[in-house]
Specification:
Structural class of chain A: mainly alpha
Order of helices and strands of chain B: HEHEHHEEEHEEEHHEEHHHHHH
CATH class of the largest domain in chain B: Alpha Beta
Number of strands of chain B: 10
Radius of gyration of chain B: 21 Å
Strand content of chain B: 15-25%
CATH topology of the largest domain in chain B: Creatine Kinase, Chain A, domain 2
Oligomer: heterodimer
Distance between the termini of chain A: 67 Å
Largest sheet of chain B: 8 strands, antiparallel
Radius of gyration of chain A: 28 Å
Number of domains of chain B: 2
Shape of chain B: globular
Order of helices and strands of chain A: EEHHHHHHH
Largest sheet of chain A: 2 strands, antiparallel
Chain lengths: ~160, ~350
């Protein structure tokens, strides 16, 4: 809907005025509303802010004293500096970090590039995990030939792992 | 290559001729990596930090063509030189301001910079002029492979590349595109664009990154999420959004010509007049005027001015570069005079 005053910008302010028992609806863009002296209250939901703060407080509160045996950093220290001390922290703080991952990335698992060298093991594990996911997809989509091929491939990789 | 040569030669990522160069200045792809079996930077003592820097220097130069890369130690460098490298986007402000042993390898044509002992052990950055997300990524990926042949990076099967800050975990990839959006600013539509962008887990920053204000109508848009999606997906999402923004900016430029051509010309020509005649000019004013002139050139309202020269002025009128070119430390008012002189020199109107 376009602003009824300038007919150029989108109307984002919708008002219902009652003048002398007559009801009138108005649709204005922000600029025109401001020019007409209509105060625009930012639509901030107090509930959202509070629950966000409580969540953050909770996340730190419950885990504040978790400490990494390798580098000695606590979860509270990490939250105040925003930097972890060593890779092992990802295991020690795994649970509270999940919330952080959800918030920042909207996900909790890596599906990107795999290093060639970070141990054939982790590479193999990821591959297997992905193959299993593909297998599941193939079965659900009733692509049985594809599923059989994937099943063989998974078996091959698993046994290769055992004999290594 | 000598540091002075780097600072005084044109920056290749500001060169015109890249795809969509009327709106996109440059593309950057950054990868964050850490060496396996060592704590992150904040938990390294000075000896360990020295040792890591020496190890990385040796590994990086051996993995890449050492004759094409030069390694610089940040703690040996003057304040002005560090500032210049920040202005060129070759190092981050964090690396410039950091403590202890830290370094940077600068590669061919200043398109590649690899920082050691920044927030993460290694930060690899590849720049390309214009919009070239795929090309920049492929180059970064290839360099990463070569580094990986010598260095084992910390990697977890579930979380990917582990980084000092959980916001970078996973791919460790941050792709960012630097856009010049004067028409969206002039037509007051920029806020709308940014509100939409924020919902897609993308971040908007100013010319000099985190916490800096957008100056000269220049904005950097980058991905925030780097876990739970492939590099390809990250680049594709960003690329799609950038294409949209480019289309909006073009539309807004079109509207300026149809709705108010005289006002547009007035803005461009006044900016040109001030830039070519001023004797004292602040850096904020410079950026605002350069923005209008750049817009004027690309919209063919201002002819006979070299766009490459104008792009370079975005860089050479900054605090560090001005002092470097003058070979002296300058106070603020001296800089404002020197800046006006440099602009007149470069634009050939001295």
């Amino acid at each position: 809907m376009l602003c009824e005053r300038c007919h150029k910008q989108q109307a984002t302010i919708h008002l219902t005025e009652i003048l002398k028992n007559e009801k009138r609806e108005r649709h204005l863009c922000e600029d025109c509303a401001r020019e007409e002296g209509i105060a625009i209250k930012a639509q901030i939901n107090l509930q959202d802010i509070l629950s966000g703060m409580l969540e953050a407080h909770d996340n730190v509160g419950r885990n504040a004293n978790l400490r990494c045996p390798d580098c000695g950093i606590t979860y509270a220290e990490f939250r105040s500096q925003g930097r972890l001390g060593c890779p092992h922290d990802y295991d020690v703080f795994a649970e509270p970090l999940r919330d952080v991952f959800e918030k920042v990335h909207g996900a909790t698992e890596h599906i990107g590039k795999l290093p060639h060298r970070a141990g054939a093991d982790s590479r193999g594990q990821r591959e297997l995990l992905q193959l299993r996911r593909q297998l599941q997809g193939a079965v659900e989509a009733e692509k049985y030939e594809e599923a059989a091929r994937l099943r063989d491939l998974i078996h091959e990789k698993e046994t290769a792992g055992e004999t290594r | 290559m000598k540091l002075d040569k780097i600072i005084t030669s044109p920056s290749s990522w500001l060169k015109p001729g890249g795809p969509n160069d009327d709106i996109v200045l440059s593309t950057r792809v950054r990868l964050a990596r850490n060496v396996a079996g060592r704590p992150f930077l904040s938990r390294l003592n000075p000896d360990e930090q020295n040792d890591l820097e020496a190890y990385l220097k040796q590994a990086v130069l051996a993995a890449l063509k050492p004759d094409r890369y030069t390694w610089f130690e940040l703690d040996d460098m003057s304040q002005i030189d560090r500032q210049c490298l920040v202005e060129r986007h070759l190092i981050s402000r964090e690396l410039a301001a950091g403590e202890g042993r830290r370094g940077v390898a600068i590669g061919p044509k200043q398109r590649i910079a690899i920082m050691a002992n920044e927030e993460d052990h290694l930060r690899l950055q590849v720049y390309a002029p214009g919009l070239q997300l795929q090309d920049a990524w492929q180059e970064a990926d290839a360099i990463d492979d070569r580094l990986e042949a010598r260095v084992t990076f910390t990697f977890s099967p579930n979380l990917g590349y582990l980084t000092a800050c959980p916001t970078n975990v996973g791919t460790g990839l941050r792709a960012s595109v630097m856009l010049h959006l004067p028409a969206l600013v002039l037509t007051r539509q920029i806020e709308k664009v940014f509100n939409a962008v924020a919902r897609l887990r993308l971040a908007v920053r100013g010319l000099y990154g985190e916490g800096t204000q957008a100056t000269g109508d220049i904005y950097q848009i980058s991905n925030q999420a780097c876990l739970g999606r492939t590099e390809h997906d990250i680049l594709e999402t960003l690329g799609t959004v950038i294409a949209q923004i480019i289309a909006y900016e073009k539309e807004a430029r079109g509207a300026l010509v149809t709705d108010s051509p005289t006002a547009l010309d007035d803005r461009v020509m006044r900016s040109w007049a001030i830039l070519t005649h001023a004797r004292i000019i602040s850096s904020e004013e410079t950026l605002a005027l350069l923005s209008a002139v750049r817009l004027g050139i690309h919209m063919k309202r201002l002819k006979g001015v070299n766009i490459g020269t104008v792009n370079e002025l975005f860089l050479t009128t900054r605090r560090g570069h001005l002092q470097k070119l003058r070979g002296a430390e300058l106070g603020e008012s001296e800089r404002d005079g020197a800046r006006a002189e440099t602009i007149r020199e470069r634009l050939g109107t001295n």
